[in-house]
């Protein structure tokens, strides 16, 4: 059980959404190159498997190929947006076990495409096999994806830091400009205060001198 929990964490960290249940496996991942392959192991005899592949939110042309444990191509679909097929096509005595490989490719990829993959495996009596316990290993180039996602996260963090630094520099320049304008206004106001204070002192002295002169003139004998 701890193995599947660790696998789920690895898939989640590699930009893959995965749901395990008693009847199916539901995976969602980004197709960022011309081909991505998913490996899974079936170690219990079964009669048929249903596989559904679709490009989410688009009809992006995809090609799906199922490779059996012997290494030969068991099924291949043409380019289209959605795929659903059964392997084998007719329910019968199909008991092949081992490592299967499912490759999803596109020759026209220009940007990452989100892909949904659903796998359902049936027993010989048409009951669903417990996929969570019988699909022992499902991987999607986890080491490479982890490194790629780490690099992308680092680039995104670096870009965010650069943007924040530019914003900080802009804000500092704005604050420096506003501070300079405020300082000029304060200095101008202080100079005006000093000027009018000096003018007030001179005016008081002038009025006082004029009053003294007027009083002396009035009191002096003719």
Automatic annotation (TrEMBL):
Residues 1-18 form the signal peptide. It holds the Pfam family EMP24_GP25L. Residues 26-220 form the GOLD domain. InterPro entries: GOLD_dom. The chain crosses the membrane at residues 195-219. Keywords: Membrane, Signal, Transmembrane, Transmembrane helix. SMART domains: EMP24_GP25L. It comes from the Eukaryota. This is GOLD domain-containing protein.
